[in-house]
Structures are given as C-alpha cells and as structure tokens.
Design goal:
This protein is mainly α and about 190 residues long. It is built from twelve helices and no strands. The chain is globular and about 55 Å long.
Length: about 190
C-alpha cells in the first residue's frame, strides 16, 4: 500500500493547505484517521462518506456534548444524516484548529448551537445548549425555574436588539469578550 501523501497527491495536498488552517502534517494525519474509518471497499471511492456513527467513534469527538451537532453542521450530505466526506472532515478540523480565526470559530460555534438551524439562538436553542453542557440526568438537569432564570440572564447579556433571540453578530460580540473561547474551541487529532 502506498503512503498517505501519494494517495492524496501533491497538488491536492497543496490545495487543502491553501483552503484550510491546517498544516501538511495535520492534513496527512487527518487523511490517515479518516481512511481508517472507511470500509475496505470504500477506500477506493474518491468521495466516500463516513457515517456519523463511525465519526463519533473518534476519541476527539466521543466525549464532546455537541458531537452530533458538529457532524450535522459540517456534513454536506443531501440526506442531512451527519455523514462526512474527507473534505467535510477537513473543514471540521480546520474550524477547530488552533490557527482558525475568532470569526471562523464563532461562526461555526453559532451554527452548532443553533439547534433548529433558523439563524438565531432562541429559547429552545439555549435550553438545548444548557442541557448539552449540564447533562440530561435528573441529578444534573436544571429545574424549569433555574432554566428560565439562566436563559433570561443569557438573553439580558447577549440580546442587544432585544428581539428575544441572539443573532450571529450578537453572539460574536459576546464571544469577543471571552478570552478563553478561541483556545477552548478546538479539536486536535
């Protein structure tokens, strides 16, 4: 079997470097890890897709409370099933890389937290966000009153135009005041 670099090809590798925030070594490692998730017969297909279930076996995603949303956001599948091509996988790793800009990271964080994909973070999205972070067991789940109070506080702090939702620019404004966001929004293979 040839090396990973020869499977990708120099031109394609250069193109991926130009289009992502990843180094050559990171792209080669991503390709190796992605290829390991493919079945033997899929390895020869240029645009093979890995199911979300197989992607979620990666240790880097397994414990992330937003792992399913991450797959849905980065998937280009017409079936909306969270499956990823290698290029989808590179986009994911690029957005979560140390080199990605605050604007890129906050854009994708917003999309991940926008559970209903309507372009705003409303009460339902914020409730899903909090439940994802606290867990959904009886011991960790907030009471309805605690949830109302927390979401009210979030909206008070974030909803600049007072329309009851947080839009992308409001979200980015809040994130810009959070110095640890960029360093914590990452996935490293």
């Amino acid at each position: 079997m040839g090396t990973t670099a020869s499977q990708l090809g120099k031109d394609l590798l250069s193109e991926y470097q130009e289009l992502t925030f990843l180094t050559k070594q990171e792209i080669l490692l991503a390709h190796k890890r992605f290829t390991e998730l493919l079945n033997k017969d899929e390895k020869d297909q240029p645009n093979a897709r890995v199911s979300m279930e197989r992607i979620l076996t990666l240790p880097e995603l397994k414990s992330n409370p937003f792992r399913r949303r991450i797959c849905y956001v980065f998937s280009t599948s017409d079936c909306k099933n969270g499956s990823l091509t290698f290029e989808d996988f590179l986009d994911l790793l690029s957005a979560f890389s140390d080199s990605a800009t605050m604007e890129i990271k906050s854009h994708y964080a917003f999309r991940i937290f926008d559970f209903d994909d309507d372009g705003t973070l409303d009460y339902g999205d914020l409730e899903n966000l909090v439940n994802s972070l606290t867990g959904e067991t009886d011991e960790t789940r907030l009471t309805p009153e605690e949830m109302r109070q927390l979401i009210s506080n979030i909206l008070e702090e974030s909803d600049i135009d007072k329309d009851g939702t947080v839009n992308l620019s409001e979200f980015q404004h809040v994130i810009s005041r959070s110095p640890d966001f960029v360093s914590s929004f990452k996935i490293v293979l």
